[in-house]
Amino acid sequence: MEGKSDVEIIEEYTELLGSHESLYRRKTLLAGVEERDLSYFNFIGQNKCRKTVVGLFGFGGAGKTSLVKLLGSRSTIQATRECLSTETPYEAERRCTIHVHPTTVFLQRKNGISHIMTLLDTPGHADLIPETIKTLEQVDTVVMVLDICRDLSLQYELLFGAIEASKKPLIVVFNKMDLIGKEGIAVAASRIKYLRDIIEAYLNPRCWFVSSFKESKLSKLDTTIGRLIEEYVDDFDSFIERIISKEPITHGDRDKMECLTGFLWVGGVLLCSLVPKTDIGVGFQVEVYGTTLTIERLYLPFPGCLVKTQQIQSKIGVLAKFPEDMLQKVVIPGFQRDPRLMKEVLKRKGVEYGNPEFLEVEDPLVRVQVSPDNEDHFSLGTWKLRLMYPSLKIDGKILYGDGELFMDTVLYDLRNSLGIKFEVLSVSSNLKEIFGVSFTEEVDTGRGLVVVKGGPTRTMGKIHDFGAVEKRILDRGLLAKDPFVHSYLEVSPVSEEVELECLKRLENSVIGHVSLLEPLYLVEIVYTSDSEDLVNEVITSSFGEIISRKPSPFNELKNILCYIPVPESFGFETDLRVYSCSRADCVKIPFYWRPVADKDRTHRLARFIRKAKRPEP
């Protein structure tokens, strides 16, 4: 009966709008897929050798999503009419991929054998690198899509290191060959050789392709560049065969929750994206990060549509709906950057940095304080944000995240998807406090002298057993009221109960040894020669520090590598583009935390944070 109805009850309330229609809404229609097609799909899904999970990686509009659509156009199961998409309103509006989107394509190979391919379209912005790298654990084959007209940026180098560590087979596609033109054949050949040399220094790709997804063209890179541009042999069949590897893939011993690729807000419902390790179905129980959940609905994400199904075989991408009361109990650990990858990139670039232990400070960079119109509604909605954005940290009315685009996405979904109205009170950088040097102080508490010792910890894995007084001081901070990191404190002798006046004397005795830690962006700026003075001015005004300069090998563009303190970075990209009249652009990657050396900046940052944290009257 459910399949024949086109409405569903959404609220069990009385007539709020004075009409029975207020209790209902029309269902989002799903594609009318023939039952025989699904039966054959399920039959093929029982064969482990005829299923492949493919991760598509690339940045800056390289063409990943276009490749998904191109492969989807060859699927024998497609939408018969326009219907529900997993693309969020923010992604559609900004034309960028924020979440990992699964698409299942049912392909008929050249030899007539059918094959199921799950495509995982990954985020393409530097703020979302941890989520992108995490997806490598789920895939059998990696497809890297590169824009032939752009140089490789810092984020690619981080991704190369992660792919190398994963040992997954790699296929490289040089896209946007249509922008080269016949007159640029020599330049195209030089660029491809240049990019191949860089990639092969890290990786050993299985094969190479050149493409123009705009023109639906894809050719294997085993002939001359000139012939490829002039003729463009259709090698999609060869591309698919290369993806479908016969080589054994070792994933290691992963538990059930490792099949999770993320949560998506689709049509007003929170769906979990899975690539299950075992066959599952409606009513089955699966474990998601330690919480056992019962599947209420399953949807197959075919190209352009979602198709409801009762069961699905292992190793096929699917979207699952779970009971919301159980979902609220799920806690997803944040996807943190691996400092080893950053260290390798810096080593190859010859970049020297300060104390290496500060690379381990992994807390989010940006903090946004909001004032919701309805605090209860806000509290009820934040658990959904935690699932959709695992690296988001929520502390009361303060949201923490890695980067401006990331936080812009979170706030957009908070307002538009979850319907929570709010006012942004402040946007600032996250800060930490640390004891810069070791010290010993004698303090008169009014009840006798005590000895206070403190300093930075030198061993990352060392665990200190702090007393109640020490923990209280370190947790609330002294300058900006932010927690201490990599620091120890010892007060002796002291009782567990300390009066407020005594505590203030202890804090005043050590505050002179406290330094603020601020996060840094490692920024790569590409600009034209005539905008160099403007670029330098923007860097200086943001308290930036230039590390290196170099020209581009194929055009008149130049490249600057620099540090920009995150507290001074808000609006940096906009200023760079506006003041240079779009002749400069940049990529920002969270780098590491560094003590603020300038005393004026230290006091300014501390005052701002304390003011932002001041309780409302």
TrEMBL record:
GO terms for cellular component: cytosol; U2-type catalytic step 2 spliceosome; U4/U6 x U5 tri-snRNP complex. GO terms for biological process: mRNA splicing, via spliceosome. Pfam families: EFG_C, GTP_EFTU. InterPro entries: EFG_III/V, EFG_V-like, P-loop_NTPase, Small_GTP-bd, T_Tr_GTP-bd_dom. Coiled coil: none annotated. GO terms for molecular function: GTP binding; GTPase activity; translation elongation factor activity; U5 snRNA binding. Residues 516-598 form the Elongation factor EFG domain. Residues 57-221 form the Tr-type G domain. It comes from the Eukaryota. NCBIfam families: small_GTP. This is FusA-like translation elongation factor. It comes from Encephalitozoon intestinalis (strain ATCC 50506) (Microsporidian parasite).
